[in-house]
Amino acid sequence: MKKIAVLTSGGDAPAMNAAIRAITLSCNYHQLQCVGFYHGYNGLIDDQYVEMEHFDVNPTLQQGGTILKSARCQAMLTSEGVIQACNTLRKHEIDALIVIGGDGSLRGLQAIKQHWEKQVIGLPGTIDNDLSGTDCTIGFATAVTTATHAIDKIRDTANAFERIFIVEVMGRHSGHIAFNVGIATGAEAIISFENFSADRALQKVTELLKAIDKQQHTHGSFLIVLAENLWPGGAQALKESLTEQGKVDSAICILGHIQRGGSPVPEDRNLGTELGLAAVDAIITGQDNVMIGREAGKVIATPLEQVINTAKPVSAHWVNAHQQQLTHYLK
Ligand code: F6P
């Protein structure tokens, strides 16, 4: 009987559990043995092994987080760590390894492939949506929904006080969350990697002040969605620049890890389920060294090498859609 291992790695994402559940149930259906490793690659290095039939995976669809736990693993950046992980796979006679995670986790999987002769399959699990080879990553839709609902609430109080808010959203180094959330909430400004560079900070503040001035003569609140890891000095520095250059007061809200938690939206549960089932099918049909994703409604397999080395930009259409809205304020 073939033995398939699964782990979740890096930043957890809503509906990782849906993928784990689908993998477990599909292995059961195909009479394959399914096992898990806890705490991402750390569990592989330290041999934190669990037989998946001991899990009752059925009630986990609606749970955020990951029942296998997750972690970032510095040891996987060293060849000793990778070799130790491969030794654990050999010790348990694993035939195929499925890793659910983001960019760094898939790089770890590729490193394993260089020292281990069996099959490796990646699944895109990250709220950031910054992986090519899939239109959406598992967890992205939920993160966008959570941030949208939070910002809608901020908008209510911003409207009541006719206030300016800077809301920082996650996304690591990409603007998929910033643009999708900013457009969904009608943010007056979205500042993200795709439309901003640090050397334009001064100019950006001037633009914002003009737009704020125009907006406040009309109907009050002004919402700036700011991508994390972008503005030099962060949201606080932007707030201070607005005050210094324009005598404009603003409030800051950093949404942070609430974007990673919560019950996954149906879209994510179904994506996790579809890709989990497809990962087991891929193993059965002998695929190797690929990530399974969904593009234009179809499940596809993309070589890990390609996924890791190809950026997935935010669509120019989205960036322009927002730019047109901002231009309106600058007229
Ligand atoms: O990759 C997911 C993510 O939530 C990013 O959006 C964010 O930059 C990062 O993880 C935060 O990581 P940590 O929880 O380790 O601080």
From TrEMBL:
Catalytic class of the enzyme: transferase
GO cellular component entries: 6-phosphofructokinase complex
Catalytic activity: beta-D-fructose 6-phosphate + ATP = beta-D-fructose 1,6-bisphosphate + ADP + H(+)
Protein's cellular compartments: Cytoplasm
Cofactor(s) for this UniProt protein: Mg(2+)
Enzyme Commission number, as recorded: 2.7.1.11
Pathway assigned in UniProt: Carbohydrate degradation; glycolysis; D-glyceraldehyde 3-phosphate and glycerone phosphate from D-glucose: step 3/4
A biological process term (GO) from this entry: fructose 6-phosphate metabolic process
GO-annotated molecular function: 6-phosphofructokinase activity; AMP binding; ATP binding; fructose-6-phosphate binding; identical protein binding; metal ion binding; monosaccharide binding
Family: Belongs to the phosphofructokinase type A (PFKA) family.
Name of the protein described by the UniProt record: 6-phosphofructokinase
Source organism: Pseudoalteromonas amylolytica
Origin organism lineage: Bacteria, Pseudomonadati, Pseudomonadota, Gammaproteobacteria, Alteromonadales
